Amino acid sequence: MLTRDLLARIRKIEIKTRKVVEEMTGGAYRSVYRGRGIEFSEVRTYTEGDDVRDIDWNVTARTGVAHIKKYVEERELTVIIAVDISSSTLFGSAEDDKRDKMAETAALLAFSAIRNNDKVGLLLFSDRVESYIPPRSGRAHVMRVIRDLVATHPRGRGTNIAAALESLSRTLKKKTVIFLISDFMDESDFWKPLRILNRRHDLAAIRVVDSLETALPSAAALELEDAETGATFAFPGSKMAAARYAAAQELFDRQLAENCRQAKVDLIELPCTGDIVKPLMGFFQKRGKRKTRG
Question: What's the confidence (pLDDT) of residue 247?
Fold first, then answer.
């Protein structure tokens, strides 16, 4: 049952994200993802000016007359948004926690998809697949996606990205655009299923990170608790301890970026506190340039 508070959160996300889609991201999304695939339409006789690379040599040899294959762009894409709702995503050092920012990002992408007449689906995961909404189009469907984003209470506390990716590999039959939204705090090896999924589909990784996760204050002694395991850690609050923490976080960042690069997966870094539109626009513009060169 949706409470008044949940309904208010859903409405807030809808208003905020739809405004951005109309002003900016809808057009940027469309320029990258419209007509990414092609499907066979018909075979017709060759006429002067046609691309010789489109000649159907089998039909040409059988009939003795040059024929070409004609294709049309696939206008409708399938988009899946896979969102991490493990316990670590509830952390936030300011007004919004990471899960709030992930929900806003997912809603922004979902509205962009339906504005482009694409189908959009949702997969929520923790240390297991929590729920899956098959792709459909239309505003009513997107509102259901947003509702599940804010109202689902996960059964699991941990993170298992591999399980989510393997579930999508089994489920998706048609080439799909996939946005994987997570803080990537997963110590297991999920890179093989990620590479496999990206070879079959078009996957982008979106990491939401809080500034306090990258640098702890050196002047304060803290007791930290792992939200997923419940384990506690004492942080002495010294400059040396802060430097070691920052170095470990920097190493994590570099390894994540390098693993994504090797898997040929675009990585978008989004701040938990701050503007998410600029990094997303940078991603769309980068992909648009790559598509043009290709």
Answer: 92
For residue 41, is pLDDT > 70?
no
| 90: nearest Cα among 153, 16, 8, 18 | 153
Half-sphere exposure of 149 (CA within 13 A, CB side): 30
Give residue for tokens 């506690």: 232
Q: How confident is the model at residue 26 (pLDDT cuts 50, 70, 90)?
A: low
How many CB atoms are located within 10 Å of the residue 234 CB?
10
Place of tokens 């075979």: 43
Write out the residue range of the structural domain in which residue 184 sits: 4-30+75-208+271-293
Judge if 48 and 131 occupy the same domain.
no
- Rg of the Cα atoms in the chain: 22
Residues forming a β-bridge with 208: 270
Neighbour count for residue 105 (Cβ, 10 Å)? 24
Is residue 136 within 8 Å of residue 119, measured between CB atoms?
Answer: yes
